[in-house]
């Protein structure tokens, strides 16, 4: 019997890997031998044979499932061990992938970027997605992080490739690439900073940080990342002394993306200018170098919206424009899987190894609770008392959720709202809390209107929320049919129309009217939000709302800053700006019902100007006449075209 066993073992050596594989799968499923006997007619001797062959020799590997045979399956939980055992060596497949990707990047140009992108997309189909993302990211960063100063057009081309891959592969590619980019930048920045502190000669300094800063700024220009990360990088550069290499990096960033930064977040740019001015005015900062003076001049031009700051960037600007056109037409030849901008901060990226990547689904975690608890204990008690007072006030005002309580801290809301990790549904609470806080103020505070204006610039969803909040408010005033059939039906099914238990007082009507007047006058909203209103049958409080609204909308179109109160101290330009008011009103002329309703209200229920100053009364009368004439002209034009 033993001789037969040996003969069988020798004859089955060639098929041992197949038997092992089947044996492993049977162990995983944990079937009972009496219930499942296999697909063949095996006797007891056969079972013993298989079991005997699986036992490893004394010199065998500790992990029998890890095999170097080509094509052998390795369970996921053993792959990391395999990498360690093999000394982080690349597999044949990864080497082949790297060689193909490197060849594609070597041939990359503006003329063939479309075909190169198609071939890289093919690599994602033929190879592991994780390997492809890792290798492409590594190759691009190795190319850009050169010690020599690269042409901006060269970096722009690679940034366009990354932006294209983000669109067709998904937001996870951008998340991985940006993390590696920022990590590489911080590593080279630390090396550069250490070299400066040790007074190394200039020849030893590479241009890695400069090239990576250009890549980061161009990814922002291509809307891969938001302004949050770029402003964080600027603040990080300004955190220490204005060293020469810090100024050089700031100049490079401002030249490439300064105009777009000013457009996206002018208030943050003003904060940056204030920080720079504070540092340069410090007597301990010493004499300013030529680069620092040029940076101040550049910031001044950006703040004042002058074009001198970008005159020397004509070639780079043209390259960026061409690549933006290419990205705009990408949907014609590829399936677009991501339209989002990565709104992640520098702190989020640097702490992702402790907190995870919240910007990716399934990649966030709560972190080490012991570390979090230690950090909480380090916080001073005074701010905690202040926060407790704010939370008590929030609770008193009906802020009954964590999201609303965070937004209620409106002192810091303008700076922190964009950093709150809110879902799309939770973001709707921002506008509701702003309008609520504005309504309960005894005196109108234009701060809320300015915050709402900036929010509407960032996202269209805030404009939609503004519209629904207005309709809710008008139903509070007694306009039960405002909002459409479905909205009115759902409102009647609820016990109350709005979430906040606030009585509709006169000052609340005035404050809300002033907010919407500013938002509509400055283009954050438009008159079409009043289309469900029946102006021929308004409640008394609604009439007061629209009278205040019209006066302030007219005045706001003539002024650059919001009005607190239309009193005698208000300075109004003697020459009226007809075009500004006509532009606001023309948006309502296309809707015949709304245009007729506004004409009726302006003619039959005009706001009283008896107690106003002469200049305000004259401006209001002029504005009402412009509204009537513009709406009539728009209706006549619409009738002619019809």
TrEMBL record:
Residues 389-535 form the MI domain. GO terms for molecular function: RNA binding. SMART domains: MA3 (SM00544), MIF4G (SM00543). Transmembrane segments: none annotated. Residues 1-13, 41-50 have a biased composition (Acidic residues). The keyword Nucleus applies. Keywords: Nucleus. GO terms for cellular component: nucleolus. It is found in: Nucleus, Nucleolus. It comes from the Eukaryota. Residues 15-25 have a biased composition (Basic and acidic residues). One of its GO terms (biological process) is ribosomal small subunit biogenesis. Residues 1-64 are annotated as: Disordered. Belongs to the CWC22 family. This is ARM repeat-containing protein. It comes from Dacryopinax primogenitus (strain DJM 731) (Brown rot fungus).
